[in-house]
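Hey, does this match?
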Amino acid sequence: MNNALILSGFVLTGIAWLYVAFTYGNLPDQVVAHMDLQGNVNRYDSKATLWFLLAIFTGLQIILMKLGDSTAQWSKNESAKTTSLFALPYLGLMIIGLCYLMIQKTLDLSFNDTPMMIFFGIITVLLVGAVFVHGLKTQKK
């Protein structure tokens, strides 16, 4: 299971990197960087911000992977590693979503971001549930 979590996290992040690479040339110099809850844009940044976000999320995934290794060694329990690795695919989905949202909103200010926000909420609830269930199963062993 650990290898599947690691692989899926990095595959999703790789998709985000490819998406930005293929759309970057078609973007204006300034991209949407922040919106309020109603989807109104209230800040623009350089399109290089997309690369910065990708680097931050990739770095977080690497840190979480290393943290999982050290947690498993410290606790002598491989399932402790699995708990921290649940965040890898989650971060991969989040960076795909953030990049997609920023790019689509930049290209079309009327882009409806409500379905994306609902998706982010559902994915977050599912992650918390999966970690909780995994924790319960681990305690019973």
